[in-house]
């Protein structure tokens, strides 16, 4: 087969041509090595860079025509712990997984036309946690660390400060407006990020009543798992982990019946999954706990879905059992196909939650593969929706003390060594390092020589400057990527709690809706050409 390099593969750097380049890699096979060698040669020509910049400029000029449509659908992708260094390293990894150098690769989120920065501090913390930040980007108010769905007037772990300080989330605003709503996460569905969408709790660790102090229970506070099913009882799609918090104490897990650490944890004797199943049996509701059962469903025949695929968090993508556990991309695919049936649209929260866990463990390889998988999910969501009626936002709750450097050469493995030795201890070091964490290792009174260990192993813990059993969050701003209706309102440097207010404004839900109606009282939409509408309809049907 004849393949025109100049027409197709040369433009693999460019947004509109990237898909053709992947097709080139598939078709050309070994011959693509020659293609990439030619690209290296082209980079020596100043004209290559100038032409690239001019094409980028031409594309940027189209952004002057702002998308002011009403957002029928709103999607938030939250990369837990996905600071800017993690985004950059994940971009390089994505490219290297495809046989490229990596630096020139584009993540799907990189293609979004608008980028802003989010200030992540909690009301009582310079460096935040995932609970207070979740309250900000879901409920629209800053809050104290360790608390979810309550204002800063609530005090962590003090049950009696809950009542009167509850704040509602954009998921509830969307549900109240008649939209379908969903939560998809790789953590427990009652973990910090998803719980702020539905719960009001002064302690993020009150996963079930078995995790709560007696005085909190006596004072009437509810555990987070219980609130998932009671506060907003008709959430359309819920997928993630966390089975053990839904069953009575000592109930064996369906998947790991012989492992007591996965047994149920509830003291109140309630079977929350059973209660949900009974309530939804006549509403086309289905409960699944494995990938096979998930894919046995036809989304067209499902209105409510509860998928709990592990007793706690889902496994890292690199360790996922592809027979039993769905990927984040697969869960997002099913979720959107269920939610988009609602003619009023939907709100979907998607969390790549184990990026954070990989960093806390000092295991950068896991963290970055989790970020790449979330980017795949973003790609899939883009194929199933349209930028003309769907606002998609990608951001993080906070960063980590993760970095990579050391003057590495172009194309150096992101998990590889720096090309220089330390001029202090004359030992090599990896490009990836942490400011603190479990990777701090001294051998015979000196820094470990990393050339004696497998530093590209999945579970290798990158060296850290300060010894800690668990690496910490970072305090710098994080990126906000956005596309779709009114995405341009996410610009500049913003407080984190601004995010849901923009999303609600774009979708005409929540408190600020005065701009949403014409004289006839119907939602106002910008003009979309008939040809474009046909193309969008064809895309929707094919996907």
UniProtKB/TrEMBL annotation:
Protein name: Alkaline phosphatase
Pfam families: Alk_phosphatase
Keyword annotations of the record: Glycoprotein, GPI-anchor, Hydrolase, Lipoprotein, Magnesium, Membrane, Metal-binding, Zinc
InterPro entries: Alkaline_phosphatase (IPR001952), Alkaline_phosphatase_AS (IPR018299), Alkaline_phosphatase_core_sf (IPR017850)
Cofactor stoichiometry and binding remark: Binds 1 Mg(2+) ion. Binds 2 Zn(2+) ions.
Residue stretches in coiled coil: none
Gene designation per UniProt: alpl
Known EC number: 3.1.3.1
PANTHER family the UniProt entry points to: ALKALINE PHOSPHATASE (PTHR11596:SF90)
Catalysis: reaction(s): a phosphate monoester + H2O = an alcohol + phosphate
Originating organism: Sinocyclocheilus grahami (Dianchi golden-line fish)
GO cellular component: plasma membrane; side of membrane
GO molecular function terms attached to this record: alkaline phosphatase activity; metal ion binding
SMART domains named among the record's database cross-references: alkPPc
Cell location: Cell membrane
Record field: transmembrane: none
Active site: 130
């Amino acid at each position: 087969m004849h393949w025109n390099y100049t027409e197709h593969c040369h433009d693999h750097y460019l947004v509109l041509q990237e898909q053709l380049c992947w097709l080139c890699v598939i078709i050309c096979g070994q011959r693509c090595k020659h293609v990439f060698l030619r690209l290296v040669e082209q980079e020596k020509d100043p004209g290559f860079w100038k032409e690239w910049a001019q094409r980028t400029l031409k594309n940027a000029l189209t952004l002057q025509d702002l998308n002011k449509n009403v957002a029928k659908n709103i999607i938030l992708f939250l990369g837990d712990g996905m600071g800017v260094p993690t985004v950059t390293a994940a971009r390089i990894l994505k490219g290297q997984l495809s046989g490229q150098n990596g630096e020139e690769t584009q993540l799907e989120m990189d293609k979004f036309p608008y980028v802003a920065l989010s200030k992540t501090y909690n009301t009582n913390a310079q460096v935040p946690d995932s609970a207070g930040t979740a309250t900000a980007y879901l409920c629209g108010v800053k809050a104290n660390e360790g608390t979810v769905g309550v204002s800063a007037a609530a005090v962590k772990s003090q049950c009696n400060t809950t009542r009167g300080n509850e704040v509602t989330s954009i998921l509830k605003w969307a549900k109240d407006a008649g939209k379908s709503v969903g939560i998809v996460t790789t953590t427990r569905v009652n973990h910090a990020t998803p719980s702020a969408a539905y719960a009001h709790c002064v302690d993020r660790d009150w996963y079930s009543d078995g995790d709560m102090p007696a005085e909190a229970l006596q004072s009437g506070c509810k555990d987070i798992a219980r609130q998932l099913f009671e506060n907003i009882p008709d959430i359309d799609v819920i997928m993630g982990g966390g089975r053990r918090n839904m069953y009575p104490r000592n109930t064996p897990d369906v998947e790991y019946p012989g492992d007591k650490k996965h047994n149920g944890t509830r003291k109140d004797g309630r079977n929350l999954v059973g209660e949900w199943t009974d309530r939804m049996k006549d509403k086309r509701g289905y409960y699944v706990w494995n990938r096979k059962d998930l894919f046995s469903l036809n989304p067209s025949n499902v209105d409510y879905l509860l998928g709990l695929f592990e007793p706690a968090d889902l496994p890292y993508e690199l360790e996922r059992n592809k027979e039993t556990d769905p990927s984040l991309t697969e869960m997002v695919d099913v979720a959107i196909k269920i939610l988009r049936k609602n003619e009023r649209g939907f709100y979907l929260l998607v969390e790549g939650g184990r990026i954070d866990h990989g960093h806390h463990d000092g295991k950068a390889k896991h963290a970055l593969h989790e970020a790449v998988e979330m980017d795949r999910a973003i790609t899939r969501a883009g194929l199933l929706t349209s930028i003309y009626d769907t606002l998609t936002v990608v951001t993080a709750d906070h960063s980590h003390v993760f970095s990579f450097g050391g003057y590495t050469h172009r194309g150096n493995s992101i998990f590889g060594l720096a090309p220089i030795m330390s001029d202090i201890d004359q030992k090599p070091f990896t490009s990836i390092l942490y400011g603190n964490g479990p990777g701090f290792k001294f051998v015979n009174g000196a820094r470990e020589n990393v050339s004696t260990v497998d530093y590209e192993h999945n579970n290798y813990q990158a060296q850290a400057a300060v010894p800690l059993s668990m690496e910490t969050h970072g305090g710098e701003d994080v990126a906000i990527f956005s596309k779709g209706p009114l995405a341009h309102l996410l610009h500049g440097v913003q407080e984190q709690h601004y995010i849901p207010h923009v999303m609600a404004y774009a979708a005409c839900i929540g408190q600020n809706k005065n701009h949403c109606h014409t004289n006839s009282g119907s939602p106002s939409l910008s003009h979309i050409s008939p040809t474009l509408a046909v193309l969008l309809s064809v895309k929707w049907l094919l996907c």
